[in-house]
Amino acid sequence: MSTRQIRRFALHYGEMVAAMLIGMMLLWPVWMLATGAAGDGSWLRSASVETLVMATTMALPMAGWMRFRGHRWAPVVEMCAVMYAGFAVALPLHWAGVLDGGGLMLVGHVAMFVLMLAAMAWRWQEYAGCHAPRRDGPDRASTMMAS
């Protein structure tokens, strides 16, 4: 594990977080506009739905960035799955009354960032390696991983 790999790994994590935050800032207001007519008591405005929508507003741009950076679909799907995993654990606690809506968001987001880091560590070579924008077909990512 070289210093260069650690820097690449950290940069990659930062890029994905930046893509997620940008997506949240751009897509969350779209959701709010789309559901603006729904009252606060509507199921569309429930903490359960809104946490999943929030995760989606973050997962979509992160997945797009990962594909742009040359990742194969398997790591992209894995990373999207771990973004929802924390909420999957926290939602039953919310439904049981252990967590309120704010607690649900907090637990889900903290778990999201921790689980993303764990998924990246699991595929160290995938995230510590050099990636460049996709320009020449689907086999480029696997070719990059071999070098």
Can you tell me about this structure?
Helix content is about 75%, strand content about 0%. It contains six helices and no strands.
Which characteristics define this entry?
147 residues, mainly alpha, 76% helix
Give me a quick take on this structure:
Helices cover 76% and strands 0% of the residues.
Encode the helix/strand succession as letters: HHHHHH
Separation, N- and C-terminal Cα atoms: 16 Å
In helices, the fraction of residues equals over 70%
Strand content: under 5%
The helix-and-strand class reads: mainly alpha
**Number of DSSP strand runs:** 0
Give the radius of gyration. Answer: 17 Å
Q: Report the biggest beta sheet as strand number plus sense, adding barrel if it closes.
A: none
| Mean pLDDT across residues | 85
Give the number of helices: 6
Low-pLDDT residue intervals, each spanning 5 or more residues = 140-144
The backbone outline, from C-alpha atoms, is globular
How is the topology of this model organized?
Blueprint: H1 3-34, H2 47-68, H3 73-95, H4 101-122, H5 124-128, H6 140-146
